[in-house]
Amino acid sequence: MSQKISKELNPTVSELNILSDGIAEFTEKHIGPENRQELTFFARDIEDKVVGGVKGSYGNYGWLWIDTLWVSSSVRGKGLGAKLLSAIESEARESGCRFSYLNTFSFSAAEFYKKYGYRVYAELDDFPERHSVLCLKKKLISG
After folding, report:
1. Domain ranges in the chain?
2. Sheet holding 63-71, edge to edge
3. How far apart are CA 89 and CA 128, in angstroms?
4. How many whole angstroms separate alpha carbon 72 and alpha carbon 63?
5. How far lies 99's CA from each of 2, 32, 65, in Å?
6. How far apart are CA 91 and CA 62, in angstroms?
7. According to CATH, what is the number of the domain 35-139?
8. From the CB of residue 32, how many other CB atoms can be counted at a distance below 10 Å?
9. What is the torsional sign of CA 7, 12, 14, 16?
10. Of 27, 65, 77, 124, which sees the most CB atoms within 10 A?
11. What is the per-residue pLDDT across 60-92, written as a single tens digit (0 to 9) for each?
12. pLDDT tens for residues 104-142?
């Protein structure tokens, strides 16, 4: 049987789900279901406008993935990022997560995360050129 490979510029959600469902099915055979839970916190100003937020997810594996943490330049430097980070980490701890991990650019928030206990465990150089992507992790529960 031969397979045809085609470039897909606009795959459907259903087609994309075939890929993620296939990986999940394979993974479950080795380490059980992940049961991923999405987690998002927003910070809003007095006019209810979003001025910051943090988005991530966790599952049965004991790890929090922080996908995005952003604070508007209008309120940056006032501790909002730390509050958002604390909120998502606290929720993850209460849900049984022992660790947290994330990626950030070398020119972005690496020092911020290091200040709150994250450490670099990998670096992808020249991504983009003259910069790096840093992979950071943190132990959320001691012991």
Report:
1. 35-139
2. 37-44, 50-58, 63-71, 99-105, 132-139, 119-125
3. 29
4. 27
5. 44, 18, 9
6. 12
7. 3.40.630.30
8. 11
9. positive
10. 65
11. 899 999 999 999 999 999 999 999 999 999 999
12. 999 999 999 999 999 999 999 999 899 999 999 999 998
